[in-house]
Each structure stands twice: as structure tokens, then as C-alpha cells.
Amino acid sequence: MADALIEMHGIVKTYPGVAALDGVDFSLSAGEIHALVGENGAGKSTLIKILTGAERRDRGTVRLGGTEIEPRTPVQAQRLGIATVYQEVNLIPDLTVAENILLGREPRSRLGAIRWGEMVRQAQQVVDKLGLHVDVAEPLRAHSIAVQQMIAVARAIDQQARVLVLDEPTSSLDATETAQLFALMRRLRKAGMGIIFITHFLDQVYEVSDRITILRGGRLVGTHVTGELPRLSLVARMLGKSVEDVSQTAARRERTTDGEQRECLRASGLFKRNAVQSFDLSLKASEVLGLAGLLGSGRTEVVRLLFGIDQRDGGELSINGESIGHHSPRRAIKAGMALTPEDRRAAGLVPHLSVRENMLLALQGAKGWARRVSVREQQAIADRYVRALSISTPDIEKPVSQLSGGNQQKVILARWLLMEPTILMLDEPTRGIDIGAKEQIESLIDELRSKGMALIFISGELDEVVRVSQRIMVLRDRAPVGELTGENLNTHAVMRQIAGEAAGQAHA
Amino acid sequence: MKSQLNRHWPLLTTAGVLVALYWAASIAYTGFSSWFQFAQLFADNATLGLAAIGMTFVILSGGIDLSVGAVIALASMGLAVLVSHMGVPVWIAIPLVLVLGAGFGAFMGGIIQVFKLPPFLVTLAGMFLARGTALLLTETKRIEMSGSAGVRALSSVLVVDFNIAAMVFLVAVLAAWAALKYTRFGRTVFAIGSDESAARLMGLPIASTRIGIYAISGLCAAAGGVVHVIGTQAGDASVAFLLELDAIAAVVIGGTVLAGGRGSVVGTLLGVLILGIITTIPNYQGNLNSWWIKIVIGLLLLVFVVLQRMSQAWGRGSGADSPARSF
Amino acid sequence: MRRSLAQLIWPLVALALLLVFNAVESPSFFHVQFVNGRLSGAAIDVLNQGAPVMLLALGMTLVIGTGGIDLSVGAVMAVAGALAAKLLHLEAPVVLAVAAALGACVAAGIWNGGLVTVAGIPPIVATLIFMVAGRGIAQLITDGQIITINPDSPFTTIGRGVIGGLPVPIVIALTAAIVIAAIVRLTSLGVFIEAIGGNEEASRYAGLNVRWIRLSVYAIMGLLAGLAGLIDTADIAAADANNSGLYLELDAILAVVIGGTALTGGRFSLLGALVGAIIIQTLSTTILMTTFRGQSVPPEFNLVIKAIVVLMVCLLQSGELRRMVLRARGARA
Questions:
Q1: Do A94 and B261 touch (CB under 8 A)?
Q2: What is the reported pLDDT for B314?
């Protein structure tokens, strides 16, 4: 493209043991909004980090307006004209809006004193030009996240940025705020700015972008003109499938559950503002319910609500026939529930504690501090689960942080299995672990189900959800969009629902 | 307008408390509201006030400085030794002490910055070091200086009842206010306390600013030691024990948020005056004992900390990090 | 067990060096005698005088283990002494005086813990409040006077008595250490504390009662500070609200850090904290006993040494320094 603003070519970035980016090309034109999409581990954030100087590339070239660049810090990238606005706004909440826009370039008197009047006047001009109604003399924190983001954009523009990276800017915005941001983006596009837009929301991709670049597993899947790429194809490509692929993942196991089974979990009209819209859910014993959807579709939010990590804003919930009022993990565990969280490191493991201590944490928590499981018993339990789940550790007294990802995941699984829950929720249990461990976890799920456990299974890998589940609830943009069972349960159908085509909303 | 009120309510609360306290004391005690007493309030609290000004910079940046009391003592002894034992003229000795104080602060700031250590621990070491050195300087622990003509001259300066200590204090308030409002350094202090990683991403000079902040705290504490010497005409190694607590209290009561980013030196001035009045009241009220001072200061601290906590719940920055952790 | 021993090596080496220095400089240091039915000598004095800091360090270890800190323990000590002395002055039975004092200290601990867990105030700030107000409360109780206690009162046994040849403060400190270690290691409290300090979010997911555990840790801290305060008061047979426990919170924190417990919480070592407390007291005693060129070293030298120890321990724990050293080595290679 003749007027390419950014040209990234053959970008390679390897972290110890992982190829985060493997020869990725990307280009951005002036006056374009370019959506960058992909699931977990696709390499979006690594690509952006390389462009904005937060990381250095191993190989490949980056050109800005034809000249090769290699920013070493975000500040350098800003000087070159590449500005980034993050979901978590990176401005100073306690300084005024005017300062946030002009920090580092404040108008100063000959003695070096900041000229406040002049600064407020200049900043007000910048803000007015963008059509924002903001008093720039107020502190930034007085404004909503949406306005803060637009102020971050204003700062970027005032710094003569030519390239604007918006990293999941709409995640915490409501519909009106999103519309405001989009209006601003279109205005900037008209002014010739190149905008890279990262989002999980497909509707937004189609609403505002000109082109779409899809990454998957550190590789470029393709770049397409938005209007020429049907939603279904987009979803298929993000998930590493092809639409034409008719050899749909076949059902490996019987799909039907015995109608006589006891209902373990019932939620009706459960919702939490800015997290997940109202949903109904029912789960029976000997059943695996899969939650499918793209990253950010609300899968994790559903299980967080069910487990009492977040408090619901409304709706009814009963676990094993017991109606739940004020919810908490302790309450959920008491009612027979267990959850292995999506983020093992942040919410699962206590890194310094041993394999044994991590395994016994929930059981001990439920028993209370005074009734300690004896060390001998703990060792016996830990040994049993190390063998049962074939966890490879030289020693159950090793700090859990020294284990591999797959083994860490199994330790958390063991923590919950030894509680003998009636309901087990697994949020991305197979992410970032090797194939062998994946298969083990899959067959373990099957075994638990056949023993009468009720399970909720979340995975970003469609094949896996389809293989493991009896029933799948599909989520899109933080709302349930459909449920698939029996005959209808195949990857193609799930993809169609994720893409929103079943509802006849195809934009393409 | 509403947000203006929102933004300034901590300062307004402090001002309200101060006015109410002053008014009540004026009614209750004859002579309390005299001009002389008013000037005396500044003079009596100049050392605390100066330390609190430095502490304002530190707390605004999200740090803490436990060494200020000890630095006051060290500066006081240092000045006395220089002048009385070594015969250094006062006009050389005072700047020298101030520079040493600033250097001491800068050293601590440098360690905090370079090794990424908690300010609380580093300044604790600074406290031990400064207090120990002050006590080790001479065997007497106290040096009378009424013999020094320079010190005597300084101690007799009086401008409309404001003595030199009060004037230094007021000038320091003005200078600190201007520095925080009108210099890039000052705004960077707020930025570091408000969101350090954002400040770094915006290209602000974090390292030099942090070192500067602790240097200012050391400078202010040294100045506090100097005015104490001038006021008492003696160097004293055991002066200002636990003064850092009062300084922190004054800053917090003055509306500066302990987590950093929000506050003002004007508030600190008001906070110091509140502490000053509370400290004076037992002089008038025979049956009121001095320990009530500590309890009242503790209560005021509690009220302001809870108010801060409540206001944090509304703003961004209450954040994901657990408040139940210290570091 | 192996892990905790490995952690203890550096504090133990430091202590050993100090003791060797003492053995060379003042041979009388290890001269322990059995006089009038009690052991005496410099080494015993170290333990005896170090008892309050040992008690504080035990509690502080748990608080720091949860990722918190308690600055108010010195003030709590003063409250304990003041209340006990006042009650004895009013001719209350010794048992009642002791129980009331300890009860008040537990209440103070719960107050601190409540501010941290319920009100959500950071521990440094929350405990700063009682650090300021607590000493005032102690002075309020004593009316600002130093209340003396009849030296013949059985109460003074807490500070001066002897059990089985050992001074009572040592017995109390060791008993407390054993009891706390038993509570923490024989129940699950210790693991819970380490889990909360190591990863609070994961602890919540695992169903731990994070609030309650935090609160109880601050309560235990209060109790131990109360014991330390009683020892201090009984030892001098007087309650000095101004000076009892002054700066001891800092010594206690220092002891914990020397003992290898990170200020960020997580894995903690009670034994390490005890060794840390003993190191601090040995330092003071060493300086008192040491002569330099025929002159005794002024006791204030203690503060300077402490400053250097704090800095060294900080730097050794600093990941940044380790990274710098590694980088320098890498550059050379």
C-alpha cells in the first residue's frame, strides 16, 4: 500500500520456551481504523508491545512512514508519533485534565513557573476540538473512564501522534460511552490518523473498523477488508477452523443425559452490571455444561457469579436445592461447589506453599483452622492425588511454583477433587499446558461425569468444549445467545452462534 | 461547582476544625486570641511545621519519612558543635547544616529509588543513624549556645511579633506551595504518588524527583533543627523524639492522603496549627492533662483516615490491590 | 523443615559472629553462674532483657506473615503496664490486674485488626493511630504519673522472679514461643497466614475466611504486646507510660526481618524472629561490654549499628541488588 503509515514485516519474538510471534506482518494506513483480533495467546499484545516500545523484537522490520524504527521505550514511541491508550487509563488521576494533556509540554514563564491560565486555555482548545465537554481545570479522577480515555486520546493528538493504539478501550464502557468513543475515532480517521483497535467485541469490530487482522498462536491468519469478511469466517479463523470444514468434530460420547438426574444448580435471571447480562442456567448431575464464546464474552463472569467471587446485582440462585442469598466462595464450597479459576497464578496457587499445602488448602479452609488434618493424612492424600492425576513432582513438599503449568493445574484440580464436590466448574483448565496433560484432564472430566458429578467446562478451544460437553451455552458480548444440545452440538453450530449468524445478524 | 466542593472538602474540613478550635479556645481562655499568642503559635510550632512541610512532599509521593525527628536532633547538635566547639561562624555553619540535611535525605531517597526498598525501612535506618550520630557527637548530649553572638542576634530578630522561627516556617510554606503548584518537579511529586507507572509511561523523571523529595524532607528537618537551636539557644541531641509521628499526623489532618497523590501544603499548615492549639490548651486549662493531646490527635487521625478511605471508594485508584497489605 | 533451616543460616551466622566477638573481647560474657538459686551472667541477661522484644517479634512475625504490620505494639505495652499498675495501686488482686491488662491489649489488637479488615485501612496507617493515641491512653490511666508498684508484690515476679533457676521473663518468652509455635504449626493457622500473605486472592477462592484470620492475628499480637508490657513494668516495679515500649515496635519489625521473613508476607519463621530478637539484644549488650582503646563504647553507638544492620538486611533482601550483582557478573563473563 502506497500510503502505509505502519509496516511491520516478519516480526519474531520468542520468550523463553514460547514463540510469542512467528513472522507476523501487519500494516496500517493513514485514515484507517484497523481491528486487531485473536484469542488467548494469539500474540496481539506482544505485537502492540513491540510497536509501542514496551518490548524489543527479535527479528523483522517496523517502518513508520517508510523509515525503519526501533523504539526502546513507550516514551520513545510517543516521540515518534505512536500513542497508546489502554483499558486501564495510563494518566495521572490526581492531576488536572489540562496537566494530563500537556504534561511534559506545559507552557512556562521565563523563570520556569507553570503558567496555569495559559495551560488551561491550550488544553481547553484541544478538548473542544474533539467535541468533548470537559472542564480541563478539574482533576482527571472526577471523570468517567470513558472520558478519561478520550482525554488520553486528546493527549496523544496534542503530541502530534500519527498512530493511535486503542487497547480494549471499550471493555468497561457502556453503550452510550462506546458510541461517543467511536464518534471520536471516526473523526480522527477523517483527519488522517491511523488507528489500531483491539477489542473482544465482534459487533464493534464490524461497526467501526475498515480492515481486520487476525492472529492465532503467534501467527498471522490474515488481513481482510471488514466488509468482505463474513462474521462466521472471522470467528472460524480466530478459532483456527475453516468454515468449509464439514468434518465437524464428532460427538465422542453419548450426548443425552438421563432425564431422571437430580438438578444440582439453578440460576434464573442472574446478572451483574458491566460483567454479564441476565442469564438462566440449570445443571444436572452427570452432566457437563460447556460455556463457549470468545475471550471477553462473559464466560468467566458467569462462573465467578455462581461461585460467589462477585456479588450478583439480581436474580435467583440455588445450589443443590439450597437457595443462596448473600454469596461467597465459602458458602459455595459448603454447598458442594468447586471452581478452578481461569488465572492459576493470580487466583489459584499460593506460590511459596508446597504441593501438599496447596492441595489441602480448600479442605483445611472448610474444616477450619483448629481441626487440622494431620500431616500424615495430608501426605497420604497428596500422594494419592499425585498418583491419581500423575502429577510429576519429585516431592510433595516442593514449592508449587517450581512445577510446570500442567502440573500446577493438576494440583488445583486435586485441591477441589479431594473435597468431593457435587458441582465442579473448570475455567480454562487446559490453557497453557501440554497435550498429554490436556488429554488427561479431558478423560478425567469424563470419568467424574460418569460418577455423577455435575460440571461446567470453559475453554477457548472449541473442539475441546464440543468434545467434552453434553450441552453448550454460547455467550457473546457478555450475554447468553443460545444453547446447543444433542444433534445440534457441533463446532459449526457453536461458531455460527458466536458469530451471531443464527440470529440473522450477519453484517457481511 | 459541586466538583469544586468535592475536590476541596478535605481542606475545608480541616479549615473548619481549625476555626472551630480557635474560636472555642478564644472564648474559653482569656488572652488566647491575642495577636502575640497568634504569632507565638507559629513560633512554638516552627520545628514541627518545617518537618511537616518536608513530610508533605514525601507523603504526596506515596512515601514516608521516619527520620525527620532524628535529623532535627542531628542538625541541632551539628550546628552547636560547629559553632561552639569548632568556632565556625554562624552564617557558614547554618547553610552547611542545611546542605548536610538535604544530602542525608537525598542519600535515603537514592537507596529507596535504586534498590526499590520500602521507604518505611530505609528511613527507619536513617532515623537510627541520625539519632545515634547526634548522641555520639559529644559526651554532653546538650550544648548551651547563649555564648554565641550570632545565635543570640538571630534569636532576637522580631518582625511584628513573629520571631525568626515563625518567619522561616511561613516562608517555607510559601516556597513549598509555589514549588508544588508551579514547578514541573512539584507536579511530578503528585504524579508519582498518584500513579507511578503512568508517570513513568508519560516520561516523567521518577528517579531524580524521588531523590529530590527526600532531600527536601531532609532539608526541612535540618531547618527545623536550626530554628530550634535559635529558639532555645542550645543544641540538644534528644530533642524531637517521635516528632515524625506528629509531623505525619499534621500532614494527614491537613487533608493529604497517605497513599499519595492528593493533598496540599496549605492543609499541612492548618494541620500544624490544629496540633499547635491542641498542645497549648492544657496550658490554659489546668485540669486538662497533656495526655489528652495524644488521644485527641489519635482521634483526629482516625476521623481523617476514615474520611480518606470513604472518598477513595468513589475515585479510581482504590484499585485492585488489597488495602490490608503494607507493601 | 529443611527449607526453614536454610533460611535460618544467615541470622545464625550473624549471631555466631557476635558471640565469637564477645568471647574474644570479654570472656566474662559466657561466664554463667548459679548464684542464689538463679542463673546469672551476661548471656542470661541478654535473654532476660531481650524477652519483651522476643514476645513482640513472635506476634509481629504473624502479622507480617499476612502482609500487614503493627506499629502500635510499643503503645500497647505502655497500656498494659499502666492498667496493671493502676489496678494494683487500687489494691486489686494480681490475677485480676494481669487479666484486665491482657484483655485490654487483646481489645487493642482487635481494634487494629478491625480497622484493617473491616474499614479497609492500610495496616501502617491503621496501627499508626493507636501508636499515637495508645500512649495517651496509658498516660490517662496513670494520670501522667509513674505509678510505682510495691516491690514485694507478687506481680513483680513477672519481671524479676526465678523459675527453676531461670528468670521469669525468659520463661514467659520461651513458653509463649512454644505455645505460639504450637498453635500456628499444629493447627492450620500458620498455613492460612502464609496463604493469605502469599496470595490473598487465591486464599479467597479456596474458601479461607481471610478477614477472620487477619483479625485474629492482630489480636494475638495485642496479647503478646501486653505480656511484653507486663514484663517491662514488673521488672522496674513501676509503670512509665512515657517510656515503656518506646521504639520497640521498630526493634520487633527489625527482628522479624533479620529472621528472614519478608515484609511482603507469605512464608514466615518464628524461630528466625527469635534469633533476630536475640541478635538485637546481643548487639546492645555487646556494645555495653566492649571497650575500645581502654574506653567503653557509648551505648548510643547501638543506634548506629542498628542502622547499618537494617540497611544491610534490606539490601540483602532486595531483589534489585541481586539482579545488579548478577548483571555485573554477566558483563564480566
A1: yes
A2: 43
How sure is the predictor about A296, in pLDDT bands with cuts at 50, 70 and 90?
Answer: confident
**B314 in contact with C at a CB cutoff of 8 Å?**
no
Q: Among A333, A361, A395, pick the best mutation site for testing chain C contact (most C Cβ within 10 A).
A: A361
Q: How far apart are CA A211 and CA A118, in angstroms?
A: 40
Asked if B325's CB is within 8 angstroms of C67's CB, the reply is: yes
Cell (9 digits) for A64: 513508520
Cell of B45: 510550632
* Residues in CB range of A36: below 8 A, 6 or more apart: A26, A44, A47, A48, A196, A197, A198, A212, A213, A215
Q: State CA B196 to chain mean position distance.
A: 23
Q: How far is B191 from chain A (nearest CA, A)?
A: 6
CA distance B64 to B66: 6
C-interface mutation test, from A304, A310, A352, A400, most C Cβ less than 10 A away? A352
Residues A274-298: what's their mean pLDDT? 90
Of C136, C257, C311, nearest to B298 by CB-CB distance is C136
How many C-beta neighbours within 10 Å does residue A397 have? Answer: 15
Q: Which of C214, C314, C321 sits opposite B324 (nearest CB)?
A: C214
CA A89, CA A148: separation in Å to the nearest integer? 7
Contact at CB, A142 and B7, closer than 8 angstroms: yes
| A309 chain-B contacts, CB cut-off 8 A | none
> What is chain A's Cα-based Rg?
25
Each residue of C81-123: pLDDT tens digit?
A: 999 999 999 989 999 999 999 999 999 999 999 999 998 888 9
How close C52 gets to chain A, by Cα (Å)?
28
Kindly determine whether residue A353 and residue C195, on different chains, have CB atoms separated by under 8 Å: yes
- Closest among B103, B57, B91 to B222, alpha carbons compared: B103
Contact flag C202-A350 (C-beta cutoff 8 Å): yes
- The pLDDT tens digits of the residues spanning A40-83 come to 778 888 999 999 988 899 999 999 998 999 999 888 998 899 99
**CB neighbours of C270 closer than 8 A, spacing ≥ 6?**
C58, C61, C177, C180, C181, C184
Which cell numbers hold the place of A2?
502506497
Q: How close C206 comes to chain A (CA, Å)?
A: 5
| Cβ contact B302–C129 (<8 Å) | yes
Return the partners of chain A (3 or more C-beta pairs < 8 Å). Answer: B, C
Q: Cβ–Cβ of C128/B115 closer than 8 Å?
A: no
Cα B4 from chain centroid (whole Å): 27
Write down the ipTM of this complex.
0.85
CA distances (Å), origin A301, targets A178, A296, A424, A479: 21, 9, 16, 10
Strands A322-323 and B142-144: what pairing? unpaired
C neighbours by CB contacts (3+ pairs under 8 Å): A, B
| CB distance B158 to B167 below 8 Å | no
Q: All 3 cell numbers of residue B116?
A: 526499590
pLDDT at C256: 93
- The alpha carbon of residue B20 is apart from the nearest alpha carbon of chain A, in Å, by 29
CA separation for the pair A336, A319 (Å, rounded)? 8
Name subunits touching B (3+ CB pairs < 8 A).
A, C
Phi (first) and psi of residue C167, to 5 degrees: -60, 140
Sign, CA dihedral A373-A376-A382-A384, equals negative
SS3 category, A288: strand
Across the interface, whether the CB atoms of A92 and B183 are under 8 A apart is answered no
Q: Which distant-in-sequence residues (6+ apart) come within 8 Å of B220 by Cβ?
A: B50, B51, B53, B54, B55, B68, B172
Q: Which residues of chain B have pLDDT under 70?
A: 1-7, 286-288, 312-327
Tell me the per-residue pLDDT of C260-289, one tens digit each, with 9 for 90 and over.
Answer: 888 888 889 999 999 999 999 998 888 877
